[in-house]
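forwarding from the other thread:

> can someone predict this with S-adenosylmethionine?

sure thing
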Amino acid sequence: MRIDIITVFPEMFRGFLGESILSRAVRAGKVLFRVVDLRDFARDLRRTVDDRPYSGGPGMLMKPEVWFDAVESLRTPEARVVLTTPAGEPYVQRKAEEFAACEHLMFLCGHYEGIDARVREIVTDEVSIGDFVMTGGEIAAAAMVDSVVRLLPGVLGGGAAATANESFGRDGLLEAPQYTRPPVFRGMSVPEVLLGGDHAKVENWRRGESIDLTSRRRPELVK
Ligand code: SAM
Protein backbone atom coordinates (compact mmCIF):
# COMPACT_ATOMS: atom_id res chain seq x y z
CA MET A 1 0.00 0.00 0.00
CA ARG A 2 1.11 3.54 -0.67
CA ILE A 3 0.08 6.34 1.71
CA ASP A 4 0.62 10.03 0.91
CA ILE A 5 0.13 12.67 3.58
CA ILE A 6 -0.11 16.29 2.47
CA THR A 7 0.52 18.83 5.22
CA VAL A 8 2.15 22.17 5.99
CA PHE A 9 3.87 20.50 8.96
CA PRO A 10 5.68 17.44 7.52
CA GLU A 11 8.02 17.28 10.52
CA MET A 12 5.08 16.27 12.71
CA PHE A 13 5.15 12.83 11.07
CA ARG A 14 8.86 12.08 11.40
CA GLY A 15 8.71 10.47 14.87
CA PHE A 16 5.28 8.98 14.40
CA LEU A 17 6.09 7.09 11.20
CA GLY A 18 9.57 6.12 12.39
CA GLU A 19 8.52 4.14 15.46
CA SER A 20 6.99 0.82 16.43
CA ILE A 21 4.58 -1.09 14.17
CA LEU A 22 4.54 1.58 11.45
CA SER A 23 8.29 1.60 10.91
CA ARG A 24 8.32 -2.21 10.99
CA ALA A 25 5.60 -2.24 8.33
CA VAL A 26 7.75 0.04 6.16
CA ARG A 27 10.84 -2.14 6.61
CA ALA A 28 8.78 -5.23 5.75
CA GLY A 29 7.63 -3.56 2.51
CA LYS A 30 3.95 -3.56 3.52
CA VAL A 31 3.53 0.20 3.17
CA LEU A 32 5.31 3.12 1.54
CA PHE A 33 4.81 6.58 3.08
CA ARG A 34 5.32 9.89 1.37
CA VAL A 35 4.92 13.00 3.50
CA VAL A 36 4.54 15.97 1.18
CA ASP A 37 4.89 19.65 2.09
CA LEU A 38 1.91 21.55 0.69
CA ARG A 39 4.12 24.64 0.44
CA ASP A 40 6.06 22.93 -2.37
CA PHE A 41 2.97 23.61 -4.50
CA ALA A 42 2.72 27.32 -3.65
CA ARG A 43 3.05 29.67 -6.62
CA ASP A 44 4.98 32.51 -5.01
CA LEU A 45 8.39 32.94 -3.48
CA ARG A 46 6.95 33.26 0.02
CA ARG A 47 5.32 29.82 -0.43
CA THR A 48 1.89 31.13 0.53
CA VAL A 49 -0.85 28.53 1.07
CA ASP A 50 -3.52 30.63 2.81
CA ASP A 51 -5.55 33.79 2.33
CA ARG A 52 -8.31 35.80 4.02
CA PRO A 53 -11.83 34.33 3.81
CA TYR A 54 -14.43 36.11 1.66
CA SER A 55 -17.07 37.93 3.72
CA GLY A 56 -14.66 38.35 6.62
CA GLY A 57 -14.40 36.24 9.74
CA PRO A 58 -11.39 35.38 11.85
CA GLY A 59 -8.31 33.49 10.67
CA MET A 60 -7.03 32.37 7.31
CA LEU A 61 -8.25 29.74 4.85
CA MET A 62 -6.13 27.40 2.76
CA LYS A 63 -6.16 28.31 -0.93
CA PRO A 64 -7.72 25.88 -3.43
CA GLU A 65 -5.01 25.98 -6.14
CA VAL A 66 -2.23 24.56 -3.95
CA TRP A 67 -4.44 21.62 -2.97
CA PHE A 68 -5.55 20.95 -6.55
CA ASP A 69 -1.93 21.02 -7.76
CA ALA A 70 -0.73 18.76 -4.95
CA VAL A 71 -3.49 16.18 -5.34
CA GLU A 72 -3.36 16.14 -9.14
CA SER A 73 0.41 15.62 -9.15
CA LEU A 74 0.31 12.73 -6.65
CA ARG A 75 -2.92 10.86 -7.29
CA THR A 76 -3.17 7.56 -9.12
CA PRO A 77 -6.41 6.31 -10.76
CA GLU A 78 -7.15 4.03 -7.78
CA ALA A 79 -6.30 6.60 -5.06
CA ARG A 80 -8.71 7.35 -2.22
CA VAL A 81 -8.29 11.04 -1.48
CA VAL A 82 -9.28 11.65 2.14
CA LEU A 83 -10.01 15.15 3.40
CA THR A 84 -9.75 15.52 7.18
CA THR A 85 -12.58 17.74 8.40
CA PRO A 86 -14.86 18.02 11.46
CA ALA A 87 -17.74 18.01 8.95
CA GLY A 88 -16.79 14.59 7.55
CA GLU A 89 -18.34 11.17 8.12
CA PRO A 90 -17.36 9.79 11.54
CA TYR A 91 -14.29 7.53 11.30
CA VAL A 92 -15.00 4.01 12.59
CA GLN A 93 -13.31 0.60 12.38
CA ARG A 94 -15.36 -0.36 9.29
CA LYS A 95 -13.86 2.62 7.48
CA ALA A 96 -10.36 1.55 8.59
CA GLU A 97 -11.08 -1.90 7.10
CA GLU A 98 -12.31 -0.31 3.87
CA PHE A 99 -9.18 1.85 3.63
CA ALA A 100 -6.93 -1.13 4.43
CA ALA A 101 -8.19 -2.82 1.25
CA CYS A 102 -7.03 0.12 -0.93
CA GLU A 103 -3.85 0.36 -3.00
CA HIS A 104 -3.28 4.06 -2.48
CA LEU A 105 -4.50 6.45 0.22
CA MET A 106 -3.96 10.19 0.31
CA PHE A 107 -4.65 12.22 3.47
CA LEU A 108 -5.18 15.97 3.20
CA CYS A 109 -4.40 17.78 6.46
CA GLY A 110 -6.09 21.15 6.77
CA HIS A 111 -4.86 23.90 9.09
CA TYR A 112 -5.75 27.45 10.17
CA GLU A 113 -9.53 28.05 9.78
CA GLY A 114 -9.77 25.18 7.31
CA ILE A 115 -9.73 24.74 3.53
CA ASP A 116 -11.52 26.52 0.66
CA ALA A 117 -14.74 24.51 0.08
CA ARG A 118 -13.94 23.91 -3.61
CA VAL A 119 -11.25 21.41 -2.59
CA ARG A 120 -14.11 19.02 -1.78
CA GLU A 121 -14.46 18.53 -5.56
CA ILE A 122 -11.22 16.55 -5.79
CA VAL A 123 -11.63 14.27 -2.77
CA THR A 124 -13.26 10.85 -2.56
CA ASP A 125 -13.88 10.88 1.22
CA GLU A 126 -14.42 13.49 3.91
CA VAL A 127 -13.69 12.07 7.36
CA SER A 128 -13.87 13.33 10.95
CA ILE A 129 -12.23 11.55 13.89
CA GLY A 130 -14.74 12.93 16.38
CA ASP A 131 -17.00 15.76 17.41
CA PHE A 132 -14.27 18.16 18.48
CA VAL A 133 -12.05 20.64 16.66
CA MET A 134 -8.25 20.36 16.46
CA THR A 135 -5.85 22.94 15.08
CA GLY A 136 -4.95 20.75 12.12
CA GLY A 137 -5.67 17.48 10.32
CA GLU A 138 -2.29 15.91 11.16
CA ILE A 139 -3.47 14.05 14.26
CA ALA A 140 -6.59 12.90 12.39
CA ALA A 141 -4.44 11.58 9.52
CA ALA A 142 -2.04 9.93 12.00
CA ALA A 143 -4.93 8.18 13.78
CA MET A 144 -6.31 6.86 10.49
CA VAL A 145 -2.89 5.77 9.18
CA ASP A 146 -2.16 3.85 12.37
CA SER A 147 -5.53 2.09 12.41
CA VAL A 148 -5.23 1.15 8.72
CA VAL A 149 -1.63 -0.08 8.66
CA ARG A 150 -2.12 -2.46 11.61
CA LEU A 151 -4.86 -4.16 9.54
CA LEU A 152 -2.58 -4.92 6.58
CA PRO A 153 -1.86 -8.65 6.26
CA GLY A 154 1.38 -9.62 8.01
CA VAL A 155 1.84 -6.36 9.94
CA LEU A 156 0.68 -7.66 13.33
CA GLY A 157 1.68 -11.03 14.70
CA GLY A 158 -1.22 -13.47 15.06
CA GLY A 159 -2.70 -12.97 11.59
CA ALA A 160 -6.27 -11.84 10.93
CA ALA A 161 -7.42 -13.20 14.32
CA ALA A 162 -5.31 -10.54 16.06
CA THR A 163 -7.64 -7.81 14.82
CA ALA A 164 -10.88 -9.77 14.25
CA ASN A 165 -11.25 -10.49 17.99
CA GLU A 166 -10.59 -6.93 19.11
CA SER A 167 -13.06 -4.20 19.96
CA PHE A 168 -15.20 -3.28 16.91
CA GLY A 169 -13.90 -6.46 15.23
CA ARG A 170 -15.89 -9.28 13.68
CA ASP A 171 -18.87 -9.02 16.05
CA GLY A 172 -18.71 -5.23 16.39
CA LEU A 173 -18.62 -5.40 20.21
CA LEU A 174 -16.11 -4.10 22.76
CA GLU A 175 -13.44 -6.58 23.79
CA ALA A 176 -13.86 -8.46 27.10
CA PRO A 177 -11.51 -7.46 29.97
CA GLN A 178 -8.03 -9.02 29.75
CA TYR A 179 -5.52 -9.99 32.45
CA THR A 180 -1.90 -11.03 32.78
CA ARG A 181 0.20 -12.23 35.74
CA PRO A 182 0.14 -12.09 38.74
CA PRO A 183 -3.11 -13.99 39.46
CA VAL A 184 -3.77 -11.78 42.51
CA PHE A 185 -2.70 -8.14 42.66
CA ARG A 186 -3.54 -5.91 45.64
CA GLY A 187 -6.38 -8.22 46.54
CA MET A 188 -7.83 -8.22 43.00
CA SER A 189 -8.06 -11.70 41.48
CA VAL A 190 -8.04 -12.77 37.86
CA PRO A 191 -11.39 -14.47 37.10
CA GLU A 192 -11.14 -18.18 37.91
CA VAL A 193 -12.29 -19.29 34.44
CA LEU A 194 -9.21 -17.73 32.80
CA LEU A 195 -6.84 -19.78 34.97
CA GLY A 196 -8.50 -23.10 34.19
CA GLY A 197 -7.41 -23.62 30.57
CA ASP A 198 -10.84 -24.77 29.30
CA HIS A 199 -11.04 -22.99 25.94
CA ALA A 200 -14.77 -23.44 25.47
CA LYS A 201 -15.50 -22.01 28.92
CA VAL A 202 -13.09 -19.12 28.33
CA GLU A 203 -14.76 -18.29 25.00
CA ASN A 204 -18.17 -18.39 26.65
CA TRP A 205 -17.00 -16.11 29.47
CA ARG A 206 -15.41 -13.65 27.04
CA ARG A 207 -18.53 -13.49 24.93
CA GLY A 208 -20.70 -12.77 27.98
CA GLU A 209 -18.31 -10.10 29.31
CA SER A 210 -18.07 -8.52 25.88
CA ILE A 211 -21.86 -8.26 25.52
CA ASP A 212 -22.20 -7.00 29.10
CA LEU A 213 -19.50 -4.32 28.72
CA THR A 214 -20.85 -3.16 25.37
CA SER A 215 -24.44 -3.04 26.64
CA ARG A 216 -23.40 -0.82 29.55
CA ARG A 217 -20.98 1.50 27.74
CA ARG A 218 -22.06 1.51 24.10
CA PRO A 219 -25.60 0.10 23.92
CA GLU A 220 -25.96 1.32 20.32
CA LEU A 221 -23.35 -1.30 19.27
CA VAL A 222 -25.36 -4.28 20.56
CA LYS A 223 -27.53 -5.61 17.78
N1 SAM B 1 -13.31 26.01 10.83
C1 SAM B 1 -13.41 24.57 10.82
C2 SAM B 1 -14.79 24.14 11.36
O1 SAM B 1 -15.35 24.85 12.16
O2 SAM B 1 -15.24 23.04 11.00
C3 SAM B 1 -12.33 23.94 11.68
C4 SAM B 1 -10.97 24.01 11.06
S1 SAM B 1 -9.76 23.21 12.04
C5 SAM B 1 -9.26 24.51 13.12
C6 SAM B 1 -8.40 23.06 10.95
C7 SAM B 1 -8.23 21.69 10.31
O3 SAM B 1 -8.08 20.71 11.33
C8 SAM B 1 -9.38 21.21 9.47
O4 SAM B 1 -9.32 21.77 8.16
C9 SAM B 1 -9.17 19.70 9.48
O5 SAM B 1 -8.21 19.33 8.52
C10 SAM B 1 -8.57 19.48 10.87
N2 SAM B 1 -9.53 18.97 11.87
C11 SAM B 1 -9.92 19.61 12.99
N3 SAM B 1 -10.75 18.86 13.70
C12 SAM B 1 -10.91 17.69 13.05
C13 SAM B 1 -11.66 16.49 13.28
N4 SAM B 1 -12.44 16.36 14.34
N5 SAM B 1 -11.54 15.48 12.40
C14 SAM B 1 -10.76 15.60 11.31
N6 SAM B 1 -10.04 16.72 11.01
C15 SAM B 1 -10.11 17.75 11.88
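Residues 199-217 form the longest helix (19 residues). thats all i got for now
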